[in-house]
Amino acid sequence: MIFTNLISLFVTVVAVVATPIQPQQLDVISPAITSPNATARWTLGSTQRVVWETSKIPPSFATNRGMLVLGHLSTYTDSEGEQRVSENLNYTHPLASGFQIGAGSYDVVVPLDAPPRKDYIIVLFGDSGNRSPTFEIRK
């Protein structure tokens, strides 16, 4: 009898806890990176400012923490023969992290070990990842 009552209580608790909740709208922000742009030429070891649009960032998102990552574009063929683009992001060594998205800009140092190339990108993570136009890093 006690065992049956315990089982009934357990089933009732599980049923209450498992009650579905109402769907929540997810707000996603994706501020456009305005600098660097396609004409940018960065030099190894230099300090550069990354700038992004802030006019559409709601106040509730302005204090979200961000991360800036350097990458470069390349294409590859997937297993179904389709051409794909890879961003080759260097998550291991972000250019910056922990800054507030609402700041709209952050200074970074161009890595000394970045091979010179013309297809670099910066990706801003905070709420949604977005990337800059391609730009050049040179010696």
Q: And the CATH topology? A: Immunoglobulin-like
> How many structural domains?
1
Radius of gyration in whole Å, from Cα? Answer: 23 Å
Report the span from N to C terminus. 81 Å
Description:
It is a single chain. The protein has one domain (24-138): Sandwich (Immunoglobulin-like), CATH 2.60.40. It has 139 residues and is mostly beta strands. It has one helix spanning 2-17; strands spanning 33-35, 41-43, 47-52, 65-72, 74-77, 83-86, 96-100, 105-109, 117-125, 130-131, 135-138. Strands 2, 4, 7, 9, 10 and 11 form a six-stranded mixed beta sheet that branches. Strands 1-3-8 form a three-stranded antiparallel beta sheet, with no helix packed on it. The radius of gyration is 23 Å and the shape is globular. The N and C termini lie far apart (81 Å). The protein contains one helix and eleven strands. Residues 1-18 form the signal peptide. Keywords: Signal.
Kindly list the characteristics that best describe this protein.
mainly beta, 3-stranded antiparallel sheet, 1 helix, 139 residues
Quick summary of this structure?
Keywords: Signal. The protein has 139 residues and is mainly beta. It has one helix spanning 2-17; strands at 33-35, 41-43, 47-52, 65-72, 74-77, 83-86, 96-100, 105-109, 117-125, 130-131, 135-138.
Summarize the topology:
Layout: H1 2-17, E1 33-35, E2 41-43, E3 47-52, E4 65-72, E5 74-77, E6 83-86, E7 96-100, E8 105-109, E9 117-125, E10 130-131, E11 135-138
Parallel strand pairs: 2-11
Antiparallel strand pairs: 1-3, 3-8, 4-7, 4-9, 5-6, 9-10, 9-11
